[in-house]
Write a sequence for this structure.
């Protein structure tokens, strides 16, 4: 049975949050001790420009925000600490209360939002619901280095997983990554901006098939292509 | 042409360093301004126990260190700033001098070694040269969270890429990831220890085919399986 974890749920919660009120959309800025607590969270949406964003990233962001004006596209907010959602749906599937209360987990934070501004993953995802596709604008910071001067393959795989997760969650609700298959075509220069176009290709029962390509800002350079398989979670079944 | 970046070169450099002297094996502990400079680096090997290592990880580490005593296995050292190697081989392939001297890159550090002790990727890789396989012992810290209480799929993909890179570099020298295909079977609890067994399956011209499985400490739980394709770099050709 395929039931691996992914950033898909993060995106799902973002989507749900959008419908259920702004207070559930974003992150707790306070230290990690706030996680899993019932304290009122201080919210922040991380999928917005900050001073570390390059001119290219800001320009693309503005272009997509324009596309949002007629409702065909929408920007997906993003949080830092998924745990603040206290997702009951998710607990049904996986969560061991002892694990949640464990010492190490008091510091838990979302992998892609744990870096200082500009050093790690800077990204925003836009969703076109009618076309079942998303566009992720991503700037990979200097802490994501693989070979000197270039992004680590794992950082690219991470962003593809995040982009896929959002795309699958639009149609699938609570989903999880079952497979990632990535072809790396060219090395990506560190600190450059990438555009990840993801598409829902097929929905077959609880299986969602997605694909993407990773391109340069001017779309001329193809850096990677990938496919993904996501599985809708079935609330009636536990995956652990 | 397949020529994406990977952690493989890091591992390659570790392997080379082992042959060429300890001074080239490990990392620069000083701030990032030291990168790309000619200053003498302060070296540290990050693939050694630190206080954040769990009992399980330390136990496994000790077991593999025992296996190293007869020379059948060897521990691969690990660095934080690949750039301190100033790899001329690599520059031949990809590096744009302007890029290397760019502002953002002055802070560059290896993705998997950029976290404080215990918060991110804690790992060590052991190599069995005769059997063409490696074992990576990995503890995923709280900053690698995906869904609450579990490791991010991208963090798992990253460690698989690192483990594959080491395995391929043993036979291939300078290699790069061309493909990663990962099946996620079960979510991995945050802060748990994983054992990644990688194997070189086939060498076909410049192509190296590798596979791995990701298991729990007691080997009873299979979390992920993956295959990878790596390409040997050809010093006579530029990939950019």
């Amino acid at each position: 049975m395929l039931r691996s974890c992914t950033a898909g749920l993060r995106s799902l919660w973002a989507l749900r949050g959008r419908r259920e009120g702004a207070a559930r959309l974003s992150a707790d800025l306070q230290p990690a001790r706030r996680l899993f607590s019932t304290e009122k969270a201080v919210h922040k949406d991380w999928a917005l420009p900050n001073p570390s964003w390059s001119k290219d990233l800001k320009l693309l962001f503005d272009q997509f925000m324009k596309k949002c004006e007629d409702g065909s596209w929408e920007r997906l907010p993003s949080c830092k600490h998924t745990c603040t959602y206290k997702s009951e749906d998710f607990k049904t599937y996986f969560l061991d209360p002892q694990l949640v209360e464990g010492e190490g987990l008091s510091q838990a934070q979302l992998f892609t939002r744990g870096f200082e501004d500009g050093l790690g993953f800077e990204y925003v995802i836009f969703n076109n619901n009618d076309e079942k596709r998303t566009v992720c604008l991503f700037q990979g910071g200097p802490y994501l280095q693989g070979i000197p001067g270039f992004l680590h393959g794992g950082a690219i795989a991470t962003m593809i997983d995040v982009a896929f997760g959002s795309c699958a969650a639009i149609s699938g609700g609570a989903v999880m990554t079952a497979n990632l298959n990535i072809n790396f075509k060219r090395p990506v220069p560190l600190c450059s901006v990438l555009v990840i176009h993801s598409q829902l290709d097929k929905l077959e029962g609880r299986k969602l098939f997605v694909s993407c390509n990773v391109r340069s800002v001017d779309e001329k350079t193809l850096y990677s292509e990938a496919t993904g398989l996501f599985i809708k979670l079935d609330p009636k079944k536990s995956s652990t």
In short: Helices of chain A lie at 8-20, 55-68, 88-93, 97-100, 153-172.
